[in-house]
Design brief:
Number of helices: 6
CATH class: Alpha Beta
Largest sheet: 9 strands, mixed
Helix content: 25-40%
Shape: globular
Number of strands: 9
Radius of gyration: 16 Å
Order of helices and strands: EHEHEEEHEHHEEEH
Strand order of the largest sheet: 3-4-2-5-1-6-7-9-8
CATH topology: Rossmann fold
Amino acid sequence: MEGCAIGVYGLHPAAGTTHVVMLLASYFSDIHKCKTEVFETGEQKSFHCFEHFLQGKSSRNNFRTKRCIYYKYEDLNSNIHRKEGRICIYDFGCQDKAVKSLLLCDEKWIVGSTGIFHAGDWEAFFEKKEVKEQIARKGTSGFHLLKNHGDTAKQSDVSVKFDGRSYTITAYELGTEQNILRLSKGVRNLFAKMNTQANLY
């Protein structure tokens, strides 16, 4: 398998980006037995808490769980890694400056909310200059939309319009997942569907 870089970006604070990142890490490393590397960007410190929860201690730079390595505090100026035979997942949080790095990834997972107060966030993301330019060049292939705090697998369409053209991207909902290390059947099926569309599995 060729190396693949997956970027996960939140449209707003508390969108659940890190939660989705950890679910994806479990999906690839546990379900598909892939060697997986996960990178936390910025100063979120979520991985620090995750390691302490799992192992009762916190290391300095990285830690392992099964086939997965978690790296803390990855510099956004670092190159996007693609390693043969490995899945590399990036947690970009909701940092606006991370959009350029996100667009360098092979697969771009955008995480938002089903709530009415965040309804405009989807349109605002696709109005970003660099996002519009990439879609104009390459289309919407590689973009995966996930609405957190919803009903798992329920789907709806997000419409994007610019330069006289209309694009429609299917958005899937994700409900509460209690155990990020043991994925429910609903989440396994949802990720299988979304990653099959990405030609990953």
